[in-house]
Design brief:
Layout lengths: L1 H14 L5 H16 L3 E10 L2 E11 L4 E2 L11 H10 L1 E4 L12 H5 L4 E11 L2 E11 L7 H26 L8 E2 L6 E2 L13
Antiparallel strand pairs: 1-2, 1-6, 2-3, 4-5, 5-6, 7-8
Helix pairs in contact: 1-2, 1-5, 2-5
């Protein structure tokens, strides 16, 4: 598939040290938005927040502006429905976010304020451990996600997971206290906050 060949080239640039982790995230999320065909595409990492498990954007590409944008954390009083769905199925897919029970916890903190109509999230995991998700969003209008989009996002996530994990951990190794550590019994992971500005999604 040409999309996966392009992604492999991006991974190669990172492996050879020709781009850094922030550039890798920018190139990857742009490619993801373009190939899936959505308003925004990004990588979210699982974090521990004061209200429980949450998701933080490492990078989010906006197709309308062709630039990375900052977006708020996805936090909730009880995010269990979302993570149960993501762990069980490896995917959270909604044509209409307002009617999907797994997304209800994030309505007030993210979905409504950001005008998100449709979401396609695929789990980001390495060696059976969940670290976050690869996320595609449709803004302003709904999108009925097609099987080929789901298949491609799964394959893109699988292809990039190890490179992405290496990029993140090599970055965190230079940050005091920036270590991955186990959290809940279902092997969700938490990342200390705050993250470096490189991963804030802005230019």
């Amino acid at each position: 598939m040409p999309e996966l060949m392009a992604l492999q080239r991006i991974c190669g640039l990172l492996d050879r040290g020709e781009i850094d982790s922030a550039q890798f995230l920018e190139l990857f999320t742009r490619r993801m938005a373009q190939d899936i065909g959505c308003s925004r595409a990004g990588v979210r990492m699982l974090i521990g927040a004061h209200r429980g498990a949450a998701l933080r954007s490492m990078a989010m590409h906006d197709s309308a502006t062709d630039a990375n944008v900052r977006v708020p954390d996805m936090v909730a009083d009880d995010s269990t429905p979302y993570f149960d769905d993501l762990i069980r199925n490896g995917i959270v897919m909604a044509t209409d976010c307002r009617t999907h029970p797994a997304l209800r916890p994030f309505m007030e903190s993210y979905i409504q304020p950001m005008g998100v109509q449709s979401i396609l999230d695929v789990s980001f995991s390495v060696n059976g451990t969940l670290y976050g998700c690869f996320s595609c969003e449709q803004i302003g209008e709904q999108q009925a996600w097609m099987p080929h989009q789901v298949k491609l996002l799964r394959r893109m996530g699988s292809r990039v997971s190890l490179a992405l994990m290496n990029a993140i951990t090599s970055h965190l190794d230079t940050t005091p206290g920036g270590l991955w550590e186990p959290s809940t019994p279902n092997r969700l992971m938490t990342m200390p906050m705050p993250l470096d500005e490189d991963f804030g999604g802005g230019k």
